[in-house]
Amino acid sequence: MTEWVSLPCPRPEAAIRLFCLPYAGGGSVEYQQWADLLPATVEVAPVHLPGRERRIRQQPYTVMKELVADLADGLEPYLDRPYALFGYSLGAWVAFEVARELRRRVVYRGFEQPRALLLAAAGPPDLPRDPTTYDLPDPALVARMERLGGTDGMIVDDPRLLAVVLPKLRADLQVADTYTPIEEPALPYPIRAFTGDADGLVSPEQARAWQWHTDEDFRMRVLPGGHFFMHERRAELLRFIVQDLEIAS
């Protein structure tokens, strides 16, 4: 219905639809694999951002407010059943802001709010920030990616590959680095936070701060692994997600 969302394994009888948002520079490949791994009660709906994969020719966003407004428009046709939002790293912040945008729209659009917000590898955006990274020189940006484990399987000394990867990564990082959240009431549904015990960017204490953004139940799970624990601990993460969605649906 829109270019923002796909349903790799349509499940009309599923109890809940799970929108999945990628980390900075990432795409939908991981989430397309989830569609075959999650039970029939969950319909996985990867979110496709401009500048990658099937939208490779489109200009990526650099401003959070613009991204969220257009993404919320793109999600609206898919809000015809119970749903939840999952976001990883930058995707967690985007999911959080989309949730708040949908709350603003619910009064005059008539659709329901999410049943739950699942946020991984990120603390809330109102915590103190590190210096900006989107404007780092190429070698420094690649070195940072390597330290975080974000270049696994990537030939980082291939200039042709970097010419494709780095522009969308910089655009995503600019979304994060220039984003300042406004103060709003806590969300009226559960939040689940996931973090890696060896994440060099997000400590468990930072991830736990998501509890202040919900008026409902909060739970945090710490998994073994670094910032990209979703690849290292996929089975455990998916098991917890299923448990959380069973409660929400």
Key phrases:
249 residues; 38% helix; alpha/beta; single chain; Rossmann fold
Textual characterization of the structure:
By secondary structure, this protein is an alpha/beta fold. It has one domain: Rossmann fold (3-Layer(aba) Sandwich), CATH 3.40.50. The protein has helices at residues 29-37, 64-75, 90-109, 138-148, 159-177, 204-208, 229-232, 234-248; strands at residues 16-21, 42-46, 83-88, 117-120, 191-196, 218-223. Strand 1, helix 1 and strand 2 form a beta-alpha-beta unit. Helix 2 packs across helix 3. The model has no long low-confidence stretch (mean pLDDT 92).
SSE layout:
Elements: E1 16-21, H1 29-37, E2 42-46, H2 64-75, E3 83-88, H3 90-109, E4 117-120, H4 138-148, H5 159-177, E5 191-196, H6 204-208, E6 218-223, H7 229-232, H8 234-248
Parallel strand pairs: 1-2, 1-3, 3-4, 4-5, 5-6
Summing up helix and strand content along with how strands pair, one would put the structural category as alpha/beta
Number of helices: 8
Sheet-strand content, in percent, reads 5-15%
Number of strand elements: 6
Please trace the helix and strand order, writing H or E for each element.
Answer: EHEHEHEHHEHEHH
CATH first level: which class?
Alpha Beta
CATH T-level topology: Rossmann fold
The neighbouring-strand order within the major sheet is 2-1-3-4-5-6
Global geometry: globular
CATH architecture: 3-Layer(aba) Sandwich
Short account of what is shown:
The protein is an alpha/beta fold. Helix content is 38%, strand content 13%. The model has no long low-confidence stretch (mean pLDDT 92).
